[in-house]
Amino acid sequence: MSTLPTEFSPVTVLTKANIYFEGKVVSHTVTFADGAKKTLGLIYPGSFHFKTGAPERMEIVAGACRVTLDGGKAAQDFPCGHHFDVPGNSGFTIEVTTGICEYICSFL
Questions:
Q1: Pick among 2.40.37.20, 3.40.50.1100, 2.60.120.10, 2.60.200.30: CATH of 11-107
Q2: What is the pLDDT of residues 13-36, one digit of tens each?
Q3: What is the rounded distance in angstroms from the CA atom of residue 53 to the CA atom of residue 42?
């Protein structure tokens, strides 16, 4: 059984979506009472590169993806229930081949 959260409360959710790559990646920002932020999003099929400022943890809550961290040599597969960490001031390429990948991004 997955240990990924199924809901967050109490939180504030920004209604304006973060839209990337012509709508193929969409997320919403969630802010917690302590000031922590996460984004909840969808990634449609394709290959997309993101840069990071702060370190991030990407938890896959539905679907699957393949990820190559900047400077990494091999892509790794991440099915539902798994996560990967991205260093700050870095980046990663994420690929979804079928279906929709749903994620929680935590800023560490």
A1: 2.60.120.10
A2: 999 999 999 999 999 999 999 999
A3: 20
